[in-house]
Structures are given as structure tokens and as C-alpha cells.
Amino acid sequence: MLERFNNAAKQKIQSLQEYFVLGGKGIGFAFSRPFYRGDLIQQMEAIGVQSLAIVLLTGFFTGMVLALQSSIALKTFGATLYIGRLVAGSMIRELGPVLAGLTVAGRVGSGIAAQLGSMRVTEQIDALNTLGTDPIRKLVTPRVLAALIMLPTLTVINDFAGILGGSVITSAYVGIPTSVYWATVWDQIASGGFIFKYVPIDFVHGLVKPFVFGGIIALTGCHFGLKTTGGTEGVGIATTRTVVTASILILVTDYFITQLLIAILGS
């Protein structure tokens, strides 16, 4: 019993070590040649452009629900004018980054694990090694870089879609003029303060997180994809582990990043 527990603990530690080594190599290869620029553009299109529709829908309807629910609570206190502030603060600081991260983890993370897992079980990755091509440089680096670039971009779009959804509900259901709603949105952004005089602190909160989440999603998908064994069944297990692990890591790191940013920025 003790020996089995010991072996399981060793495997977990070794897997964690491999995870960080893969991340270090994947990012490190971005600064040396050869650099596969075409693969990077292809992955940016797969991760960013192809996720645009689902991110827009998620953000828009989340903003609508947020405005609808908050209008009921704020109406009790006669404070429905603050719906814009509530929707903007929630979307930019928290819901936008987390929802975009979880959505991309489900769509892109599983896709990366399935693609690399299929290449592993069909020995295509072994063929790359035989041809003298480093699989991490060729397969991991473009995916990690593409996720680091595209997830903050998707988050900005998600934030705007959510605030726009809140505007529709506030105007059509609550009866607050659109100009008043957008004025309170700006009040919320400005109330958090600025760094370097022009960059709202809310934007810093909202853009640091998806940058980290993008790395987690791509790295987790590559890690489980490259470790796939057991044929098509193993590919299915790798995709499931990727989605579950990436989702948990996003939620856990979100808390610690928030704590860190509050400690550094003060709000």
C-alpha cells in the first residue's frame, strides 16, 4: 500500500516536472532558429479566429444575464443607474478573462491534445525526430505563442460583447438610456484609477489573466497530447484530462493572480 502510494507520488512529481520543462523549452525555442512562422500564423487562426463566434456569443449573453439579474437586485434600492458599472466591472476584471479561458480550454485545449495525441499514437512525432526536427520546436512553440497572443485578444472582444449585451437589456428591459449606461461604464473604468496616467487598472486586471490562461491551455494540451499512449482510447483520455486540468488551473490561478494584482496595484 505504502509502495503504491510512493510510486503514484513519484509519477505525479515527474509529470509536473515534465510539464514545466516542456513549457520552458516551448517558450525558449521562440528566441532561436529555426522558427516556424507559418505554423504560428496557422495556430493563431485556429485558436483565435475560429474561436471568435463562440466567444462573442458567450460574452454577449453573459452580459445580458448579468444586467437582467442585477436590475432586479438594484431596483429594490432604486439604483438601477449603476447597472453599467456592475456589468463593466464584472466583465472586464473577472468574467471576461475566465469565460474566455474556459471556452477556449474546451474548444482549443482538447483540439491540441487530440491532434498531438493522434500524431503520437500514429508515430508521426517519432518520424519528426527521425528527420531531425525537434517536435517541441515544431509543434509546441507555435501553439503556446499563438495562445499567448490570441487569448488576450479574445478576452477584449468578450468584454466588449458582454458590455454590449448589458446595454441591450438595460435599454430594452430597464428603460435606461443607452448614453447613460455607457457613461456609467466609463465611470467604472475610470474609478479604478490609471497606471502610467493613461492605462486603466481594470484593463491591467483583465489582460494579465488571459495571458497566463493562454499559456496554461496550450501547454496543458501539448503536455497530455505528447504523453498519449494506448491508441484512440488514449487520445480520448488525453483530451478529457486536458479540459479538466486546464479548467481547474484557470480557476485556481485566477484567484492567486487577483490577489497578486490587488497587492501590487492596490485596487
Descriptive account of the structure:
- This protein has 267 residues and is mostly helical.
- It is 84% helix and 1% strand.
- The protein is built from nine helices and two strands; from the N terminus they run αααααααββαα.
- The protein has helices at 2-28, 37-47, 52-76, 83-121, 124-130, 135-174, 178-191, 201-226, 231-265, and strands at 194-195, 199-200.
- A two-stranded antiparallel sheet has the order 1-2.
- A hairpin with a 3-residue loop joins β1 (194-195) and β2.
- The longest helix has 40 residues, at 135-174.
- The radius of gyration is 21 Å and the shape is elongated.
Helices, strands, pairings?
Layout: H1 2-28, H2 37-47, H3 52-76, H4 83-121, H5 124-130, H6 135-174, H7 178-191, E1 194-195, E2 199-200, H8 201-226, H9 231-265
Antiparallel strand pairs: 1-2
Helix pairs in contact: 1-6, 1-8, 2-6, 3-4, 3-6, 4-6, 4-7, 4-8, 4-9, 6-7, 6-8, 8-9
